[in-house]
């Protein structure tokens, strides 16, 4: 149950902060945001505030912000349609009732002849019992379509995604991944304040129970002075040598309470992969570095750890694309849940670290120029900036539709691999 709650909270935070970035910059640009959704599928919870419908949906596989004009509008009014009109106190159309007109007896029913709800905001037509008198009605900026008793606000062109500048649209698309990096930096800063930042000195922090380090007699605060004939001055030097000698005896010279001692440790053999994606054995002895509290160090830790984690994820992504890593290394929701379960058991700070790493991963993946992702849509905005005119919406729509189908197929394959690893 702890893992389930942790996973739901983690998923909710990662998706919410991503979509919140899209939402804020859409509203700052004057776009009409129709829906802010966490999850997909049927609605579980929904409410409307400041023109936007906020929903939590059943399937926890992402989220979205739906901006007017970004997707096809729900209602397209054409000449010949019969609609009922309701008016506000200024005499402008406030409701356009598409069906179930009998439920609105005070509304005025007309047959539409001309309509412009993008620029000039008017409807012209005839009452059903008087086809000789053309009527002209101005439409309110925030008029509502009523379909099956559900309201949908109209979107004049200046409230639509396409009406905004290349910079505004690009920023609205980039803001989601950007907020994932901001979240990661915040979490790493929080970790730095809670537990301090890792010391560069080769000094032992926590020694894991029943680990090679404990069996060798290493204790917290021991300082590694020498391994074999090589002098040690940093934690990185120490861990590099340990990693390179799995299963081999290492002779250590340590300083404990300013007294030098000699110990021998045999690193455990642990499976890992090299830069080419091939399986290798590395050494681990089961110790953590010491941590120190330092304001400037904490600030540096937040940004540097985000940078280093981003670089590692990008390196693995390039290796995956070039075939150096197999698709089998990818994990979907099932694999992430299993990994989260293991992390939760190891403590709250490790869970925070895991959340930050997943946030960076989400940000990077969304910036990849693939169809249906933020990166794919940013690519089209970039092409428009270069060409001086947009790509035809129909072509872009086909590109994203095909890409989305392929991404769903990839998700199925990855989920099946996760299930095989866990249960088969």
Automatic annotation (TrEMBL):
<dbReference type="InterPro" id="IPR001478">
    <property type="entry name" value="PDZ"/>
</dbReference>
<keyword id="KW-0645">Protease</keyword>
<feature type="domain" description="PDZ">
    <location>
        <begin position="188"/>
        <end position="258"/>
    </location>
</feature>
<feature type="transmembrane region" description="Helical">
    <location>
        <begin position="397"/>
        <end position="416"/>
    </location>
</feature>
<keyword id="KW-0479">Metal-binding</keyword>
<dbReference type="InterPro" id="IPR004387">
    <property type="entry name" value="Pept_M50_Zn"/>
</dbReference>
<dbReference type="InterPro" id="IPR041489">
    <property type="entry name" value="PDZ_6"/>
</dbReference>
<keyword id="KW-1133">Transmembrane helix</keyword>
<protein>
    <recommendedName>
        <fullName>Zinc metalloprotease</fullName>
        <ecNumber>3.4.24.-</ecNumber>
    </recommendedName>
</protein>
<dbReference type="InterPro" id="IPR036034">
    <property type="entry name" value="PDZ_sf"/>
</dbReference>
<keyword id="KW-0862">Zinc</keyword>
<feature type="transmembrane region" description="Helical">
    <location>
        <begin position="173"/>
        <end position="194"/>
    </location>
</feature>
<feature type="transmembrane region" description="Helical">
    <location>
        <begin position="351"/>
        <end position="370"/>
    </location>
</feature>
<dbReference type="Pfam" id="PF02163">
    <property type="entry name" value="Peptidase_M50"/>
</dbReference>
<keyword id="KW-0472">Membrane</keyword>
<keyword id="KW-0378">Hydrolase</keyword>
<dbReference type="GO" id="GO:0008237">
    <property type="term" value="F:metallopeptidase activity"/>
</dbReference>
<comment type="similarity">
    <text>Belongs to the peptidase M50B family.</text>
</comment>
<dbReference type="InterPro" id="IPR008915">
    <property type="entry name" value="Peptidase_M50"/>
</dbReference>
<keyword id="KW-0812">Transmembrane</keyword>
<keyword id="KW-0482">Metalloprotease</keyword>
<feature type="transmembrane region" description="Helical">
    <location>
        <begin position="6"/>
        <end position="25"/>
    </location>
</feature>
<dbReference type="Pfam" id="PF17820">
    <property type="entry name" value="PDZ_6"/>
</dbReference>
